[in-house]
Amino acid sequence: xxxxxxxxxxxxxxxxxxxxxxxxxxxxxxxxxxxxxxxxxxxxxxxxxxxxxxxxxxxxxxxxxxxxxxxxxxxxxxxxxxxxxxxxxxxxxxxxxxxxxxxxxxxxxxxxxxxxxxxxxxxxxxxxxxxxxxxxxxxxxxxxxxxxxxxxxxxxxxxxxxxxxxxxxxxxxxxxxxxxxxxxxxxxxxxxxxxxxxxxxxxxxxxxxxxxxxxxxxxxxxxxxxxxxxxxxxxxxxxxxxxxxxxxxxxxxxxxxxxxxxxxxxxxxxxxxxxxxxxxxxxxxxxxxxxxxxxxxxxxxxxxxxxxxxxxxxxxxxxxxxxxxxxxxxxxxxxxxxxxxxxxxxxxxxxxxxxxxxxxxxxxxxxxxxxxxxxxxxxxxxxxxxxxxxxxxxxxxxxxxxxx
Length: 404
Description:
By secondary structure, this protein is of the alpha/beta class. It folds into 2 domains: 26-55 and 308-402, Alpha-Beta Complex (Aspartate Aminotransferase, domain 1), CATH 3.90.1150; 69-304, Type I PLP-dependent aspartate aminotransferase-like (Major domain) (Aspartate Aminotransferase, domain 2). The protein has 15 helices and 14 strands. A 7-stranded mixed β-sheet has the order 4-10-9-8-7-5-6, with helices on both faces. The protein has a 4-stranded mixed β-sheet with strand order 1-2-3-12. The termini are far apart.
């Protein structure tokens, strides 16, 4: 056996990807430097010598990944429990920190129970298919994250409907048209949409579902992935549910963004979580996050739940407003909102690539999204504000954008 026949096919596929959607070489972070002179944290990259970069494409919204308390908590827990769990949960991989963190997450979200996964992506893959049967219709927002798309692909629903982004009229029509044709509807959506920073209007989505639930034998259930919302959105960081005053039947989120650690989780009723522990392969057959990561996440959650957390959230909102206002004054197109994802809608591939290169030349890291990753005419640069930034960082970015 050999790879001789396969490798040419893979090379051809790579060549196709390089025409537009190939990610290319990864930038490798080699170190970081604490903020000085009024500027925030800077990062060093392999191949760029001593250049220090402003990172405007990080999911660590509250800067908790570098918080001294979080680092200390994980270090001490690693010394106590070791660097890995050593087994899957149902064998001997469940540690006290896992149980405590699950209890804290359930309480944080006002739910009966919570369950940890190795990442938010695997949480969605491990949760959604368990609620889809051959009598289930899946309804999904057109801009939902790739994890939702792949979770649906792993399932075998009787039908799948995609409604235009945030189009509640179409959602209503779909729910009306399937009455009497399926037993269950599973509505799945992002909370915060990761490319745009806008949010699902869960209050209105819930109202729409309630109008039609009586017509479905097994009801309508909502599953919401709020990985970019929890910890970064809402007055107390409880995400899209708090901001929209709507509630998901099953809420999925991450520890790897605002909480600054690693892992994903789901919260819901105790019956739902008990069912998932016995049926979800991504939970049953995969190692959990380490006990040390669980302790670090508990510490980060406690910070978010404290006056310090409220201060960080307020800082995040103010900086996001400052950036959006500055972009508008410079004539750039963006979207309104309070979330720290702030898109610049360029709507042209060459201009998007040129602006990414311009900012990189001035030591600013951003993410450009071009066709065919996004539809033609939707090309953008996604900026992400973090609490570790300073006002001078935001103003420096705006000054370099003004030079473009």
